[in-house]
TrEMBL record:
It is found in: Secreted. InterPro entries: FN3_dom, FN3_sf, Ig-like_fold, NDNF, NDNF_C, NDNF_Fn(III)_1. Keywords: Glycoprotein, Repeat, Secreted, Signal. Pfam families: NDNF, NDNF_C. This is Protein NDNF.
Amino acid sequence: MQINLSLVLLAVASCSGQSIVWQGGIPSNDPESTQKRSEMIGKMKFLKEEEAQTHYIVQGEPKMFVYLLQWDVEYLTITVTPCSVPVAWSVRNMTKHGHKVNMNLSNWTLDSFSMSTHIYEERNATQRFYQVVVDVGVSGSVEIFVSVSPVPVSQLRPTANVTVTSRRHKGQLSVRWPPSSVSPHAVSYWLVLTPSTPAKSLCSAKIMAGLEANSNIDEEVIKGNITIENLGSRTSSIIKGLKPDHNYTVEVFVVNNLTGLSYRYGTATARYMRTRPLPLRDGRQTDANLRKMDGRATFRYKVPKATPLGGRLEWYVAVCGTGTVVDAEVRHKRRPIIERREIVGYSIITLNNPVPSATYILRINSTEPEMLARITQVQVLATTKGLHEPILPKLTSVHEHKSARSCRSVQLGWYPSSPSPSSNGTNFLTYCITTKEVHKSEMFTPTPDQCAHSLALKNHDYSTNLCFRRTVNKKMITKEVTHLKPWKFYDIQVAVRNGNSKVLSYEKIRVRTKQHCHR
């Protein structure tokens, strides 16, 4: 059966609270036909723009939805999102006048059933009337949304990088993601955790968790292996109660608080792993990324069986990054034997009289998010054969003798380092001075990055580099740095090593050469 479009438009207007005056009036019909048409119009579901609607559809009884676009828009988008049931649909549009509305659903050809979100998008859409027919493979709910926003709904797809890290607490994962760039002050975030198969839509996740498709929650809901939580404006969460060595799918959904529109913002696969200590081999460096380990790294070292009694076990710990601070402690048989201490940049931890064949645990912690963001990695080396790294003086600042400054050179002074007790009478230490030309506005931090000097040499990230050997004594070292440019700023780093040992850095200094060169 076909219905004159004027009747439908009148019904749409009455449902939306508007009044429409038609020239020529509504064509008259006999009472029986008018009643049938009114009944069919009554079965129609009228859609409004920017308002998410959830409808329950019975299998084999497809529903028709109608929408009247009353002004020209840059984009018109109609989406149908399955809520745990496969959906097939079709969309037709027609002008306001001169067309009939086809109410015979048997004449409609729908696409194949699928669990994907169906999107109809029309650019530069003009005033028209739209019919949407939706059918389901199994009785269930669908979510329909009409948008006239200049941002097409098709662009609201998973783009966020969801970061998942294991926490130090048993059975917990930490989840973070960046804030949405679309209406950031008008959205809330929902977190969904499933065993393996993703929910793909928020309404589907709600049904899986035993909720209504259009329901709202204020606290975490857990049903079986499904967890769903409304986080409001938060962009991070902690997931608890996970089983070790099990796979999980983490999905983040964005919900527009004004329209109710939801879409999947980001997804990630996660596997909770028990945090096991990193093994240390005698004399070999092991690196750990504290950010990925939620701020805690644990290292295990087993003392060689042949280690003589009365020996010494040493850990070299370098925290890579500028102005970095961590806490460290040594444990044996689950009890601390070296109390927690603060490490600024680097440190050497010494244990006297280690027990042969015993296993010692070194724990490195950084719990402050700001500090954790500065730390790139932690380098640890353990040995019972003695470390050869030099010992920096208590005062590690480097001074410039400004009276000796010229347009192409500066003169620096600093206190010498000492060889380690395990160096077997070393008489020389090697000092290296690297310079890097910088702009005055660049941020400067004197605290050294103990890993940066080696990395700069490896990547040739410096302006000049000078290395020299110096006899071990207590006299202050003075050195002229040459081959600089006039009237330029330089960051200068002094570092020291003992043969092939690790490189240790003094504090950085920023200098500026003279503007004019005097002959």
